[in-house]
Structure formats: structure tokens, C-alpha cells
Amino acid sequence: MKGPINKESKVTLWLGWPEIISIVFGFIVFIGLAMESGPEIVALIMHGTKLPRSLLGEGLVTVGVFGEVAMGIFIARSAKRQEIESAMHIAELNLLAEQARQKAEEATLELARFKAPRVLTQEQRGRIVEKLKHLSNTEYDIAISDADPEILNFVFILELVLSTAGWTELNWLGSGEALIRPGQPLIRLGASVANVEIGVHVNQPPKLFERALTLSNALISEDVNATAGRHIPHEMSSTNANAIHLLIGRKT
Predict the structure, then answer these.
(1) Which of the listed residues 85, 115, 145 is the one where a domain comes to its end?
(2) pTM above 0.70, yes or no
(3) How far apart are CA 76 and CA 30, in angstroms?
(4) Cα–chain center distance at 56
(5) Do residues 127 and 242 both lie within one domain?
(6) How many Cβ atoms from other residues are within 10 Å of residue 192's Cβ?
(7) Mean pLDDT to the nearest integer, 28-39
(8) Residues 44 and 149 grouped into a single domain
(9) pLDDT tens digits, one per residue of 162-197
(10) Average of pLDDT values for 117-133?
(11) How do 187-189 and 139-144 pair as beta strands?
(12) How many domains does the chain divide into?
């Protein structure tokens, strides 16, 4: 996007043909009057002859024509300058309006992106599965911040992807309220989390954290806000000792 117009930049005042023709004819008249009165002026200077009243009148006319020509040039240049400055001002206003329009469009797109639910297309799911299937038999459990429809729909998508990759979901074991889904593993409610956090306990083996990091990176590559980390177990933690813990909250 181009920046604002520099008002201090040098402006070339090109005159149009009507102004140029007017100035040329003015000079022709001026030169003609000067030629007519020229010999008498020379005689006055060289020989001290008496200045006739006609010469005085011709001189005044000549000076007047010269003044008109000079003023015509000044007026023409002033008008041209005003025209250019007006055009520059209009161009600057148009540029500012275009910038404002583009910013408004960007804000609208960003708001739409923020409001859009998290989804993974079939192609995205396939790419994630390819990155995770060599880690089959990995155990995991899930906790969510609340039973928001967008969160639950995204949980279903993740469960489908991980199941396809050969991962195994466990019931969330530990204190706290659970979301009971008939025929499906228990999910803990009330996790204090936003987006997707994939954690392992600090006392779990490093290889388990590497698997959590692989999952996090696979989601990030598909534009899902996810992080992986190690945490100290607390009273609200899952007691599944060898599982990766998926904590899912509202999208921010």
C-alpha cells in the first residue's frame, strides 16, 4: 500500500495550451508596441530630442501590456498550482479512504476467523494422522473448560483423528465434575484453559512429552492454537499416570 502523498514535494506547473497561446500573443503585442516606440526612445536618449506626448502614451500602453502579460502568467501559474494542490488533496483523501476500507476489511476477516468454529477438513485430518500413526497405542484423556457446542464438536473431531492414528482414549480419572457420554470415555468439566493445551506430568518419561509435542505441532501446522508442556500434578489433575492429557477450552 502506498503511503500518504508528500505535500512538500516539488510541483512542476505545466501550463495548458490556452494559457500559453494567450501569453504568446500578449508578448507579440508588447514587442510590437516596443518596436513602434523604440526609435523615438533612442532619439531621446542619443540626441536629447523632446519627448512627444504620443511617445508617452505609447510607453504607458507598452508598460500596461507588459503588466497584463506578466499578470496573466502569474494568474495562470497560480490557477495551475491551485489545480494541482486540489488534485493532490483529493488523491490523498482517496488514499486515506482506501486505507480505511482495507483496514475495515481486515478487521472483518479477523472477526470472522475468530468467530469461526475449529474444524479440520478431511485433508487436514489425513495429514495429522500421518504424523501420529507411528505413535499408535499412545494413551490420552480429555478435559474441557465447559460444555460449549464448539468445544464438544472439536473434541469429537480430535477423537476421530486420534482413533484413526491408533491412539487410545481413557476415562479421565480424578476429582471434579465429569461429562458422561453413553458408550464413550468420561471427559472432565471445568478445566481452567483456553485453546488446546497438551500436557504430561513432570515425573512422566521424556518420550511421552515428545509425543505430546508431536501432537501439538501437528495441530499447529493445521492452524489450531495448541501448546505442549509439562506440569506438576495437583488435586485436579488426571491420575492416569502414563497418559497424555488434552485440555481444551474456548478459542481465543
Answers:
(1) 115
(2) no
(3) 18
(4) 71
(5) yes
(6) 9
(7) 62
(8) no
(9) 999 999 999 999 888 888 888 899 999 999 999 999
(10) 96
(11) parallel
(12) 2
